[in-house]
Amino acid sequence: MSTTVKAKGQVTIPKAVRDMLGIGSGSQVDFRRTADGNIVVVPVDAGKQVSRFAKFRGHAGKGMSTDEIMALTRGDG
C-alpha cells in the first residue's frame, strides 16, 4: 500500500489502515522509528495523551514563607 506526500508534507492514511488502527478524523498518531530504520504509525490512546505542559506540573516542595521572602527582599534576612 502506498500514498503520495502532498506539497505541505501531508499524506492520506489509506482507509484500510485507518480501520485496522481504529483511527478517524481528529485522532492522533505517533510515528516511531524501529531499530531497523522503519517508521511505524501507532495510534495515541486518548486516555494516555499528555499535555505539552504536563511535564512542567508538580510541586516545588517546601519553600520560603511570604514573611521570609519579604524579609529577604528588604534586606532584613
From TrEMBL:
Pfam families: MazE_antitoxin (PF04014). InterPro entries: SpoVT-AbrB_dom, SpoVT-AbrB_sf. Residues 1-46 form the SpoVT-AbrB domain. Keywords: DNA-binding. One of its GO terms (molecular function) is DNA binding. The keyword DNA-binding applies. The keyword tRNA processing does not apply. This is Looped-hinge helix DNA binding domain-containing protein, AbrB family.
